Amino acid sequence: MVFSGDGSQMLCEHCGFTRPVEIKKKESIQELITLRRMVSGSRIPENSMRSMLNLGTGAFNDGKIPVARSYFEQVILKTGDHEEEMEAWLGLATLVEDPAEKRLCLEAVLAINPANGPARKELALLDGRIDPQLLEKNSSAAAPDAPVTAHSKQMTCPQCTGAMRFEPEQQLMVCPFCHHTEDASAKINLQKDEQFGQGALEQDFDAAIHTVRGDARPVQMRLMQCQGCGTEFVLGAATLSVTCPYCSSVYVTEAAETIELIPPQGVIPFALTQDDAKQAVVRWFKERRITRQDISRVSPMSGMYIPVWTFDIGGEVQWHGKVMRGDQRSGQFKSVPAFNSKYIFFNDYAVVAMSHQNALIHELIKGYDFDQIVPYDPRLLADWPAERYTVALSDASNQARSRITKQIRRLPHGLAGGDKLDEKSIRCDTRSIIIESYKLLLLPVWTFHYLRKDRQFDLLINGQTGEVDGQDDKGMVAKLKRWFKG
């Protein structure tokens, strides 16, 4: 006998006899989980499980909920394949109405694969972390919420109405006319545990990735595009002119366009003045024995903020392979099979949010202390341009996760504790590594360019620490000579 097309009956192919499919007494989801733990052996072949899943889905689509539930429960109790079991739990989560039972089904999926996207999305909806109306707006291409106006009153001096700017040396907003000062932004306790990820200002990644922008609302910000190199900059409300840090073009900002942008969550304010940055460049030149006679032209020193996505990423890495075990004293070791798992976590893994990335920027962002982040305040951008982010959150998160999984597979020696791994034999399962949270940050950078032998070389100076990452034409041979000379 075979199943009928809708899965509700068994049909004899020879005589046409039919028999209704026996629907087992409906178990509670908690009882089903208990039974699943007790079941051992007696697994049904994969093709039969796939058929039962399809029949359950068909019955659900036809509104035959008890029949669909019976098929999904049978798959859960009898399958030996995690993928099919996850599909069955997701099917059950779709048809049960009790929120507590729906949660148990979704948690069963995530117990098998914490990175399962549909389950994470549904659990975020169940927790209230995603507004269902936002999902409806995204799916129907409805107009977004009205943008919030970026207030700029606080950038005007309350004493003389002059335009105030942030001064790195004093870490204050300063009026250049009457010298009135104001605290720009109080430091926050970044050791505080938030609901998502580790630390403060973390944003819910599941909510953002499923609603394009999460719960953040766009604000009206001033945007200017450099006509020389095409770079787009976000400007503070009080900024009157700007010099492009890349091509040194100078612009008056009257023509700046006001558009809607999602604001960053945090900023690392400038700690270096322009003079500090110049001294850092002078030291860099001296270390490389580059003199004034070697340089034909230099650019103005320009300060700017660059956008960076950071992610909190973690999960369990399961691995198997061979380890070297034996007696340390005798030096006798042998290779033995082993398997284990280890939980890994990366806090604030940074990805540059600009499409024109280069090696200098990648090296530069490694040197920032993210414990010094303060909440985003538009006053911090007074007279400091900030480059607009052009790498989407989804693309940046894929980059971050891909780099981390490649790093684990390439350098697996941290997975085995005290054992020495035969790294060529190690195979890692990184499916459970998930992105827990994210932030969009602005990092302070001083830029500088110099011309040498008709070639332009770029320097980037960390506006927090003074570390310089730059280009020169000395090459590896000259670097080796300097090393030998001490």
Keywords:
486 residues; alpha+beta; 24 strands; Serine Threonine Protein Phosphatase 5, Tetratricopeptide repeat; globular
Task: Describe the protein in words.
The structure is a single chain. This protein is of the alpha+beta class. It is built from twelve helices and 24 strands. Among the domains are: about 1-130, Alpha Horseshoe (Serine Threonine Protein Phosphatase 5, Tetratricopeptide repeat), CATH 1.25.40; about 275-485, no CATH class. It has helices at about 30-40, 45-60, 65-80, 80-95, 100-110, 115-125, 130-140, 205-210, 275-285, 360-365, 395-410, 475-485; strands at about 1-5, 10, 20, 150, 165, 170-175, 180-185, 205, 220-225, 230-235, 240-245, 250, 255-260, 265, 295-300, 300-325, 330-350, 375, 385, 420, 425-430, 435-450, 455-460, 470. Helix 2 (about 45-60) packs antiparallel against helix 3 (about 65-80), helix 2 (about 45-60) runs parallel beside helix 4 (about 80-95) and helix 3 (about 65-80) runs antiparallel to helix 4 (about 80-95). It is globular, with a radius of gyration of 30 Å. It starts with a strand and ends with a helix. The model is unreliable at about 140-155, about 185-195 and about 475-485 (pLDDT under 50).
